[in-house]
Each structure stands twice: as structure tokens, then as C-alpha cells.
Amino acid sequence: MLAISTMWNAFKQQDGAVLFDELKELGFESIELSRHLTPDQIEQLKPYLRENPPCSIHNFCPILPGTSQAEAEKDKILLSSLNTDERKEAIRRTLQTMELAVELEVPIVVLHLGEVDTYDRSYLMRDLYNYGEREFEAFDQKVAEATEWRKRKEAKHQDAVLRSLDELNEYALRMELCIAIENRPNYYQIPNFDEVGLFFEQFYGSPMRYWHDIGHAALQEKLGMCWADTWLEQYAEHLVGVNLHDLKGLEAYHPPGTGDLEWDEIFEQLLSDVLKVLEIRPCEAEPVIEARELCESLSESSEQPDV
User: Fold this and answer.
1) Residue 265 is part of which domain span?
2) pTM of the complete model
3) Residue 25 falls within a domain, yes or no?
4) Would you say residue 31 has pLDDT above 90?
5) Positive/negative CA dihedral, 126, 130, 131, 137
């Protein structure tokens, strides 16, 4: 299945009915509910979504009280928090997203697990990358320093995430939902490559699956953290869905085919039954339709048997 995220028009179209119509006109098989939808948009969308259930929903949805759409990408409460009250509130709000999923017959809830509370050194790697120093020793040194600082604090946050996932997996089992943990764009966010393996080791056989963001993995590769291909190679057995978007330099969420990524190689790694969702920043409809046609063509090509 090929779907489109409401990220594309949630900001520019506040009327839920019109928002839904705009997405349907793009020609995708389904839609994904993004983290940027307001409670009003969700209520306006519900009559349409009951007849056309979304394929997936990102936590938290709708946006948290007191949060603007522009702020939704940065969680105010974290499943990785060392503050028990904050972590419990994050679980409670996640359950509200899961309840919305049940109401609308959405099978997959994509989780953002939080972050390690460490000084963010991403801007140093970004600056060196933009200055053309990606292959020099100074870049590798900054990557090593950032990784080391993360390691000093990550164990307690991993434990917090494990406690959160323990509760959420129990709820998901009772609610007959799939919860999917997503790779994130920044090195200090959870999970990193190794943490995905840690969490599946702890919850093997649970309703938990892996959600792979193509752009996030490519961004981490550009910033020296992890080869993009290794995520899909290592965690293929857990993979349930992918977000598709292109990169222009370090700028994400462009339509596939308009940036730096090699999409024919990417689709060779994706099984036909994996849910594919275009997650694109606001832009004109034409490049989105062209991206859909590209992905449809690559999907068909990857499914053809070798002669």
C-alpha cells in the first residue's frame, strides 16, 4: 500500500473536510494521520475516516493541549523521561492516540520514544557537513564526542523507555493494535541503531514492530552516525512500515525524486507488503503526484521476478 501523510496539508488547510478531499485528489490508496493535526481537524475528519480508515497514525495525535501545530514535532512530554510524572503523562497521552486508532480502525500507531538528556552537538556536525568537511578528521572527532556524551547518559533513559513500552505493549495487545517504534533523525533521540535491537530483544513476540523513516536514516548517515542501509538489513523481520521523503543536503521531507537519495536502490530493499507512506512538507500538488507515480513505478519494478 502507498499512502500520504496529512503532514502535507495539515498546516495550510484547517478545514478537515477540505483537507481530506485535497489528499484524496492526489491519488493515494490511503492516508496517514500525522502529529500536526488539531483536535478540531480530527473531529471534522472523523466522518470521512470512518468510511476510509487511515493506514497509520503518529503519536501524539491530535496535538497536545497548549501546543501549536508548529511545535508538534518537538514533544513536550517524553516516554523516555526520568521524571515519573512526565513519563506517566506521556503514556496517558499515547493511550489517547491508541484509543483514537481503535475508534477509526487504524491498525498501526507509530511511537516517538523520546531522547537522551544530553547536550545537542548536532549543529557542529551540520556545520562541518555544510562547509564540505564531511571526510575530514574534525568531523569524525565531533561524531565520536557526541556519541560518547550520549553513552554516558543513555542507560537510565533506556530503562525509562523499557518501562513505558512494557505498559504500552500490554495495552496494544488488549486493543489489538500494532505499535511501531520509529528511527529518529538526531543522534540523541531514541532509538539509535543498537537500541532498536535492545527493545525487540526485551519484547520479542509482542505487538511491537519497527517503523523505518528513510529520510531519518539517510540524515544520520550524512552526519556520520550509522549507514542508512543497515537499519533495514538488521530489522527487516520486524518492519511494518516506512516513511518516504527525500533529502536536499540536510533538509528533509521533500517529495521522493526531488533530492539526493537513490530511490531505485531504496525500493529494492522494501518488501511489497510493507506499508509505504509519503511524509512530505507543504508544497504544490504536482511534485507530490509525480513522487507517487515514481514510487508506484519502483514498487512494480521491485515486485517483478528476475528473468
Assistant:
1) 2-116+154-303
2) 0.94
3) yes
4) yes
5) positive
